[in-house]
Each structure stands twice: as structure tokens, then as C-alpha cells.
Amino acid sequence: MAEEKYETHEYDVIVIGAGGAGLRAAVEASAQGVKTALVCKSLLGKAHTVMAEGGIAAAMGNIYPEDNWKVHFRDTMRGGKLLNNWRMAQLHAQEAPDRVLELEEWGALFDRTKDGLILQRDFGGHRYARLAHVGDRTGLEMIRTLQQHAVHKGIDVYMECTLQRLLTDAGKISGAFGYWRESGKFILFKCKSVVLATGGGGKAWKVTSNSWEYTGDGVTMAADVGADLMDMEFMQFHPTGMVWPPSVRGILVTEGVRGDGGTLKNTKGERFMFNYIPEFFKAETAETEKEADAWYEDKKNRRTPDLLPRDEVARAINSEVKAGRGTEHGGVFLDIASRRPADYIQRRLPSMYHQFKELADVDITKEAMEVGPTCHYAMGGVRVDADTTAATVPGLFAAGEVAAGLHGANRLGGNSLSDLLVFGRRAGLYAAQYCKSLKGSLTVNNDQVNAFAREMLAPFESKGNENPYTIHADLQECMQDLVGIIRVESELKKALETLQQLKQRTRNVKIEGNRQYNPGWHLALDLHSLLGFAEAATLAAIERKESRGGHTRDDYPNTDAKFAKVNVVVRKKNGKLALSQEPLPEMPDELKALLEEKK
Amino acid sequence: MAEQQVHMRLWRGDAKGGEFRDYRIGVGEGMVVLDVVHAIQAQQANDLAVRWNCKAGKCGSCSAEVNGKPRLMCMARMNTFQPGETITISPMRTFPIIRDLVTDVSFNFQKAKEIPAFKPKPKEADGTRRMFQEDIDRVQEFHKCIECFLCQNVCHVIRDHDDNKPAFAGPRFFVRLASLEMHPLDCNDRMELLQQKAGLGYCNITKCCTEVCPEHIHITDNAIIPLKERVVDRYYDPIAKLLGLFSTKNK
């Protein structure tokens, strides 16, 4: 094969991914005066953030003046089963309100209180109504605001451009390599720093709320250049995805339904969440329906168990269905129709109304929805420094879902959008500072680039006959069945074997057609990232022999004090993923005190 | 429901040319057109080019013309077609073809750059931004836009008239301009752009855009017509014009 010439661009900072974190990072880096480009797989404004519904968690205290960052910090830590990086949880709770107000300065229009301030809604695990929102389409408002701000700042955007390999020079980031989706031609960025904002890898599971973009690119790229991954065993299965009809299975139903008064019921009509209140949350959770219903209006009552953290609710639904109290389609009922007036539901949840009406022929103002768990969010990812978002490879930064630490073992709803803003900004800021302080020049190793190009073109020359879509479907089947909500060692080990077989099969992928806008080829390349993500998640799941947050082991059903003190870290050594357990950073006493309050 | 076979005709080709090709494939309960396109892609045509992301009507990626009607493929239920009906899918016609169902929509991203940015007025004395729900309801309607560009696609000013594109922003960007002009905090001025480079005058309010909007935004009534009134007030108001003779303001 003749070596082709690559289109080459030079920047200080390359931001990969244009969801909330990537856009906020690019805006910040550019404002710091370094030459910045934003590179994304889809068109601008289509990233996964656009699908976020419920809101942005920020202790602004507009509804409950007693809310503040300390309460938000405590809620986040407890929701994450105390495995969170305390410093990230602190920075996040402290800075989220400013980041929300900043969006308003850039044109966002959140729903308002009677006094004309930003309205905040209730959500799972948050003590006070805390989520700034726009009906149930908050993500759209956020991405559009950031997108337009970035466009007006003149930031260079490379759309429909997939970067899948990072380049290093003497251990430091020196570039990124990938291809234009439209033409299939390669593109090389020479840069001093890369911000990963690529999201998670939920597309490795079958029932998922994630779009085709969620293939674990950032995690795999980082691991490939030797960066540490952390907490990969923790996957969030959102308790409420659509379950019927089959073609919509997994599509998200916002937690805002429960935040606005909806409740979960089994087929006997019981509000079963009252039977699943864990000891850890007993003191702060209502025990009767009466108290739960009164909580919506008066926070002196304790919170409804419908709004326990997502891991608890997902497990409860799973148990109800297993016990034979689920619907014929394997879900449970989510009922807001009998609890709130139709016009309230339509005003608060317009896109849920639309989604059920159009896709399932269900009128949510009149009937209950059928819901069940769907793979939604990776708590784990690239291990980063709490303040700077720096990964363990110099020049590499990560923010948003691709980064690990903030959410610990389980993320609270609403804490994702605020995460994107707080740490997106920090990633841009510190990546820019890194560029400014970097001494000497970086070179890109052409042999390395040529090797990547050959790897990526290999599927066109393969003599095999594997269909990339079939391999992807088999991967999703494997992760769904063997690395799902409830895990057990024998199945996890079986998953590892299957992943090895799938890896072998990817060498025999056959590509139809040419390089121009060829989704079959793109998927074949994504399989590299998906398999990397899946393998790290499975290995980490085997290592953590306890149940905590988004990692439930049937063979180790309880939390274990030994594992309460460690993160599971995955890193690539000599081409293989290796595991280690590393102690959590020590939390200062004044923050410990915040966690010890009972309610 | 037992799986049924359907007959699909998909446009396959690139900028140099192409043709409709026939596919027969099984359809399960609840499927939408995008599911069927994906099934064809996975089983019969691995290289079939199509854009999509959310599959729930929230991102506006999968716009196409289904039996001639511009719509989102992810929100087009298969059970809304007659049994045995052939379903024909072609790419949006207003934009240049890249490949199969994927078009070059960069026109829209170019137009977005030309719109003067949001510019907020000073904060309240107490450092807050106070806005009341009733004052932002209209603008929130505009913010529902998912940028599917179906309104751009159907707009007859540019649908068969490439030559109008440089002088016309299109319904999507009239909605964007209206959202800025009616934003309670904004104090930038976009009237000149509207009257001149955005080509608001080209629109003769046939409401085709409103009809295809999957978000049911009242593009014509709530965005375009009020903008036209504002332009008229600024540039064609006879009283203001008369007063203008005695003043240098408002020129």
C-alpha cells in the first residue's frame, strides 16, 4: 500500500467531543488565548448532551434558601457510596451555581420561579429541589447555548471527524489521528494538549439509552497511550428506560417524571419502592406514602423512596420483575397520570408526552408508562487530577463522562450536566496553561502515524467474511447478559473469554463499498474502542468483590469495608490491561464532618 | 405481532449520481423507518450512509424525505403506512448529496455564523437576572428547535433555487433571530441583517416550514411574521420616516 499524504493541522489544544464538556472546554481554552480546535464525530449540536432531560444540579438555593454547596457535596458523596474523589465532589458543588448563571449570560432561558429567578426541580438523591431546567429538554438548551457561544467566539470546529488514536513524544501528548467521516480521508492534528470529552461506552450494552457515538473512544485512546483508567466497574443502569415496543427499548424516561410527582408501581398496584429502602438511606427516606407525598411540598418530610439514587431504584425494579410482579414486557409501571393534572404533565414533561404518544401510543396524562432499567452512564473512565483534570499522561486532560472520580460508585441525576460545565471549564483552563508552560518542541512520529493508518485501512484488505454489525450485536449481547446489573464471577470470566473471541473476529471484518461516508467501516473501527472499554469494565468488575453503587455482585451481595477504601485502577502494560487497587485520597476532617450528619 | 415483510426503496449514490434501490426486509412491532433503515444496513447494505443519534426525536439528525414528505425517520412509525405500501426514502433535496441519505448541510452552519451574538443588558441592581415565565414562553418555544433543517429543506425560496442561498437565511435562522430579538435580556440589533443579508423579504408566508416542524414550532406565525412587522416598523413606518427628517436618530 502506498503511503498517502495526510491533511495536517497544528493547534495548541485539541478538544475531542462536542457535548457539554467539550464545548465548555473549547470555549475556555480559546478564551485563555491558545489556539484551539473542537473535533466531533457528529454534526455540531447533536452530541449526547442534547438528549439530557431533567436538569443541571446546582445549589443556587432559589427554592430552598437553606440549600448550599455543603448539602450538595454530601448528597453527591452519599449517592456515590462514598467512593467519589472528595475534591472533585467539593469543586463540583461549589462551582456549579456559577456555571449555570454563566449559561444565562450566554443566552440560555431556564424555567422561572414566581420571583423571576431560575426554577429548580426535585431529583433522586438530592435533598432539596436543585435542578435548573427547561421543561424536560435541559440538555438541548445547554448544548445550543454553548454551541452558539463557541461559534460566535470563532472556535475552529471539525465536524463528522473521528479521532481514535493519540500520538506521544517522549511520553507527552503530541497529536491525535483519525479520519473525516465524509471522505474517509485521514487527518492528523499536531498539538501540545488533548482534552478528551468523548463520553462513555454504553453502546457496548444492548439495552441502552446511548447513541451510536458512545463507543468508549476516549477511554480506549487514553489506555492505549498508557493513561490510568479508574472505577471502570461502575456502570449506571438508569431505572427508567422505555420497554415497549421493542424498537424503543432503552430510550430514556427522565427522572423528572418522579421528581414532578410520578411513582413506580408493580402489576399489583403497589408502590414497591417502600420495600427497598436500604439501611444507608433509611434516616432520610419516607416510610409511608403519606409522608412521601407530603415531601414534594414540604421538605420537612423525608424524601420519597421513588427518588432514591438510581442504583437502588434500578435494582428494585429488577427484583420486582424477577419476582413476577412486572409487566408482560418485563418492566414496571411509572404513573404520573393518576397523580398530577394533565396540563401540569404536559407543561413539565412535554418531550416525555411527545415521546410516548408518538413511539408507544401511550398518553402519559391518562395512562401509566412501562419502564425498566437501561444502560445509561459510565461512572468510571480516565483517572484525572481533581483540580486540573489532568490524566496520568502529560498533556492529556479529560472531562465529563469520560473522566472518573466525581460520581464514585453511582452518579446522581442532574450531576452530569453540572459536571460537564464545571470540569469542562477546568479542562480547558488547565490544558491552556499546560500549553503555555510547555518547553521545547514536540515531534510527531511519522512511522507511528503510518502504522495507525495501516491499522485503520486493514478491514478493506481483510480476507475474512465477518459483518461488523453482527460482531457489535454479539458484543452487546455478551455485555447485557454477563456484565449487566447483577454480576457474578463465573459470568464475568465467561464475558472475558467472549471478548477475546470477538477481538479475534474483528480481524476478519469485511467492508463493503469504499471509504466515503461508510458506516460499516466506521463501526469496524469503533469496535476497537468498544472492545477496549468492555474489557476494562469487565476486568474491574471481577476485581471488586463486593456490591456498591453501579456494581452489584450476586456472589458478594454486601459492601465490604476493605473495598470502601480503594479504587480499582486499570492500565495497559506491554499491550495488556493490568489491574491494581489504589487507596482513595484522604478527605479533610471538615468535609468528613459534613457526611456524618444524619439527615 | 408476527414479523411482516416490507418493500423499501432507498436512494443510493453520491454527488456524481445514483438511483433508487429496492430492499425487502422484516419489520417488528413498533418499528420506525429508521429501525428499518438500520436493519437494511446491518443485513443487506453495510455501507448504507445515514445520519442518526438519539432515535427519539431530540437531536434532529435523521431528516429525510419519506414518500416525498420531509420528516424525521426516527419518528415515522411503520404502522402508519398501508400494509403492502412501498416506502421510498430519499435524501433532503435542498442540500447537496454526500452519499446515500446523507447531505451536506454546511449551508446552515455558515448561516449560523452570520447572526450577531446574544448580548445581555446589565444585571439588576441586586446582581440577579430576573425574567418572568410569561415573558419567556415565546422564546422557549423557539429554543425547542432541534436543528433538523427540515424547514430549510422544504422552503421553496431555496429548495429549487440554489442561487437564492447566499441571500437567504431560511426559516431555521428566522426562528433563531426571533429568539434573540425577543429575548428579554438581549440588547443587540439584528434588524439590518434581517432586512438585507438574511433576506426576510423573500418569505411569502406559505407556512410549509411550520407544517414540517417536528417540534411543532409556529415558525411562520410566531417568528417570521413578528419579525416582518419589526422590519416594517423600522424601515417603512411613514410616521417614523417623517420624524426622521428632523432627527438623525434611527437611521
Describe the protein in words.
The complex is a heterodimer of chains A (599) and B (251). By secondary structure, chain A is α/β, with parallel strands linked by helices. Chain A has helices spanning 20-31, 69-79, 86-105, 138-152, 217-224, 256-259, 289-295, 310-322, 342-348, 350-360, 415-437, 446-461, 468-482, 489-506, 519-543, 589-596; strands spanning 7-10, 13-16, 36-39, 56-57, 120-121, 131-132, 156-158, 161-169, 172-180, 186-190, 193-196, 229-230, 235-242, 263-265, 332-335, 369-378, 381-382, 396-398, 486-487, 552-553, 566-573, 576-583. Among the domains of chain A are: 239-373, Alpha-Beta Complex (Flavocytochrome C3, Chain A, domain 1); 446-560, Up-down Bundle (Methane Monooxygenase Hydroxylase, Chain G, domain 1), CATH 1.20.58. Chain A contains 16 helices and 22 strands. In chain A, the strands form six sheets. In chain A, strands 7-3-2-11-18 form a five-stranded parallel sheet, with helices on one face. A four-stranded mixed sheet of chain A has the order 1-10-9-8. In chain A, α2 (69-79) crosses α3 (86-105), α13 runs antiparallel to α14 and α14 packs antiparallel against α15 (519-543). Chain A is globular. By secondary structure, chain B is α+β, with helices and mostly antiparallel strands. Chain B has two domains: 4-102, Beta-grasp domain (Ubiquitin-like (UB roll)), CATH 3.10.20.30; 106-241, Fumarate Reductase Iron-sulfur Protein, Chain B, domain 2, CATH 1.10.1060.10. The longest helix of chain B is centred in the last third of the chain and has 18 residues, at 219-236. The radius of gyration of chain B is 22 Å and the shape is elongated. The interface between A and B is large, with 63 and 58 residues.
